[in-house]
Structure formats: C-alpha cells, structure tokens
Design a protein that fits this description.
The structure is a single chain. The chain is α+β, with helices and mostly antiparallel strands. It has a domain at 75-229: Sandwich (Jelly Rolls), CATH 2.60.120. The chain has two helices and 13 strands, in the order ββααβββββββββββ. A hairpin with a 4-residue loop joins β9 and β10. It is extended and about 90 Å long. Residues 87-230 form the THD domain.
C-alpha cells in the first residue's frame, strides 16, 4: 500500500495529501528498462555474428577461386563448377585473326574447370567424362553497309569416337541485308543457341560460321562457346 503525506497549505488553509510513488511500480519500471536493454544487446550480438559468418564465407570462397582468369567470371556457372567438381568451359573469340573464328581461354572472362580443355589445333572443346552436358554458343555479326543479301549460319557440331565422324548438333540461319541499297546501312545481328546433349568422354565440340569475316571482334567477349556438365 502506498504511503501518503499530509501537507498544510498555509496560504489557503487547506490540507493537501501527497501520494508517494509505490515501490511496486518502481520495481516494474526497472524490469522493463532492463528487458529493453537486454533485447538491444541480443540484437546487436546477433548482427555481429551474422557479419562474421558472412565474412568467413567470403574468405572460404576466395580460397576456392584461386588465381585463374576464371576468377573474374561472376555468376552461378563458375560457382557451380567449383563447388560441384563438374566439368565446365567458357571460351571467347580470339581477335588475333579476323579471317577465321578461333576460340581462346586466355582472356577474361573465359573459364576452364574440372577436366575440360580447349584443343587449339582442332579449335574444339574436349569432353573429359561421359554424361549430360548443356552446350551453348553465341555469335555477334556486324557490318557498316549492305552490299548484298547474306545468309549467316551458326553451327555447333560434335566429333564422336563412337561414330568416327562429325555430327551436327545445332544449326541456326539468319538473313541480313535483304534490301540492298547504295546507301550505307549499319547492321548488327546475334545468333544464340543451346541445348542439352548426352556426350561421351573424348568427344570434341565445335562452333562454326560460314562468314567469320563479319564477326564483331570489337566485342569479342560477346562471341562465346561453352559447355556445362549437368
């Protein structure tokens, strides 16, 4: 029960009752303040632990990446290849010779992981093990004028030891410069294709075109050829 004090108001001749705060109320206020402080502390500790865990995962991933050119390739393909241990390759066009389409893995953002290799003599990607693979390729064409109609082709083929011959896996055809004029007409055209195939160990994959002289080597990273094990 709260205590009371009687105070005599001299000027008005009245008696004023002053109620003192209850010790019980003070107790609940202290508990509320302590609970609030504990809640803030718990949230702070949790946030610090999360930041530390995130930093640890970043360090672990950086150890996995190593120092190859593929370190600069972001995205899920590289992460999946490194963590799963499955073969993966991403080659880009070499701009050294514009008269033919040559693939390279010596520039960013190329990728060659887990047994995949590029045979530079045959200009092909070599499959290291039997299984399902997603094969993809994109070619980017460019010309400053339209002097004659063109049919651009993009072929993905596979030389298989089982058949002893080269087999066509994918083929795309696009027409450009259908309306020929004497005026210069700048044009760009890209052809992308990809699909899943059952490949055997030692199979060689190739991506070709009938007009390599029209490839846009100023954007060579947009001309690519890749394989991902499923």
């Amino acid at each position: 029960m709260s205590s009371e004090q009687l105070v005599h108001d001299v000027e008005k001749g009245n008696i004023v009752v002053i109620r003192e705060p209850s010790p019980k109320n003070n107790h609940w206020k202290c508990l509320s303040i302590c609970s609030f402080l504990l809640l803030i502390g718990a949230v702070t500790v949790f946030a610090l632990l999360q930041l530390d865990a995130f930093g640890s995962s970043e360090k672990q991933d950086s150890k996995l990446r190593g120092n190859s050119f593929s370190d600069h390739l972001p995205g899920t393909m590289k992460v999946q290849a490194l963590r799963s241990g499955k073969p993966a390759a991403h080659a880009v066009a070499s701009s050294r010779d514009s008269s033919q389409l040559k693939w390279t893995v010596d520039v960013i953002p190329s990728l060659l992981e887990n047994g995949m290799r590029l045979d530079e003599n045959e200009n092909s990607l070599v499959v290291p093990s039997t299984g399902l693979y997603f094969v993809y390729s994109q070619l980017l064409f460019h010309k400053d004028n339209c002097k004659k109609p063109l049919l651009l082709t993009h072929n993905i083929t596979c030389w298989s030891s089982d058949f002893g011959s080269e087999i066509e896996l994918l083929k795309s055809i696009k027409s450009v410069c259908e309306e020929v004029s004497s005026n210069k007409k700048l044009w760009f055209e890209s052809i992308y294709q990809g699909a899943v195939f059952q490949l055997n160990k030692g199979d060689r994959l190739m991506s070709k075109t009938n007009f390599p002289e029209y490839l846009d080597y100023t954007h060579s990273t947009q001309i690519y050829f890749g394989v991902i094990a499923m």
